[in-house]
Amino acid sequence: MTDKSALNEGFEAMAHDMVLRMTPQRAVILKVIEESSGHLDAETIWKRAKEHDQKLNLATVYRTLVVLKGMGLIDQRYFARKHKREIYESARKPEHYHFTCNACGEVSEFQTGHITELRAELETKLGWKMSHSCLCFEGVCAKCAERCAESD
Ligand SMILES: [Zn+2]
Ligand SMILES: [Zn+2]
After folding, report:
1. Rounded to two decimals, what is the model's pTM?
2. Do 145 and 78 fall into the same domain?
3. For residue range 61-110, what is the model confidence (pLDDT) as tens digits?
4. Beta bridge mates, 139
5. Which of 93, 116, 135 delimits the end of a domain?
């Protein structure tokens, strides 16, 4: 039997904890990320957040990103060769995948049902329970491919 009141209390404590942990600086940084449809690196987040809070320094931004990630509010992704470029985006976005152009550096998003299907297939076939999957696509975008063809 589940104790409903204990469950509610637990939830309220958690929500309260979230509010306590949501300092103005964290709120500003989260807002910058949520308002961007794109993928921001820490320095870009810092530049944008400074428009709201001039005292903010880059070290605080890095620390805050770790906290927000721990709270499940943002996702950290690695793009480009050797996954060296760290990018942050809102965790509220629907499941999607990324393509990075190695020529111009642009990151494009796309959605596909194929990965969901593949996960379901593997879970049924192999009995795995998957909580996370990440795939990284890279190459040359259409614009850059065209430019390359022109210069040949
Ligand atoms: Zn490109
Ligand atoms: Zn994305």
Report:
1. 0.70
2. no
3. 999 999 999 999 999 988 766 667 788 999 988 888 999 898 988 888 99
4. 101
5. 93
